[in-house]
Amino acid sequence: MTGITDLGFAFGVIAETIVTTYNVNGQANAAPMGVTMENLQRLVLRIYASSQTYKNLKSKRCGVVNVTYDAELFYRTSFKETNPNGKLPQEWFEKAETVDAPRLQAAHAHIEVTVANIKQLDAERAEVLCDVKLVQAANVLPKAYCRALFATVEAIVHATRVEAFINHEDREKREQALKLLETIKECNDVVNRVAPNSRYSEIMADLNQRIDSWRAKGES
Ligand SMILES: Cc1cc2nc3c(=O)[nH]c(=O)nc-3n(C[C@H](O)[C@H](O)[C@H](O)COP(=O)(O)O)c2cc1C
Question: What is the pLDDT of residue 4?
């Protein structure tokens, strides 16, 4: 039987996944989230309370942790506005087997979870403890490691914070955004060196345009 350690989860390691949940109106939602393992049956998420995923986990008390290394999925679930009509295509999802949550059909593995407890960490973030109910993995061929995958996902995660901080009233947050922009630039250089003219470089170009538009908003 497949367990979470077979999927790359380990003590003291943050694994980047995509968490899927239902909104109150029944629409499926998905967002990248870092996940740690507390024990073989329990996962821990640290989530911004402002996120839709947090609201859904709190109200529905369940979700699915989807395992994938598809940079496109990370991009389109981070920034919903990159999808047609600004919404996640509902045909991407199917119903989970053991919990009232959607799961991503294209994921390499699914971990269906229920919410055991929610602890407030600070004014912005909460820790969500999840019990593992079902683990399912697809039989997929291995993929050769490409640095552009790492660099693209790294840039996406930083960009989610840049969007939140770049026009923030707090100067420290704005300075943090500027530092993150430097890291994104380094990621961009790696992608354009190892994978020019690829889907990775297209995602980076689109991301850079979005960042320019966030900056312009602050200047107007
Ligand atoms: C690789 C990656 C990891 C992320 N990890 C987290 C996380 O652990 N907690 C969190 O609150 N946001 C995390 N984010 C940011 C959210 O995915 C992002 O804010 C998203 O837009 C939230 O969507 P939602 O409002 O639909 O939940 C991560 C983003 C990426 C790309």
Answer: 97
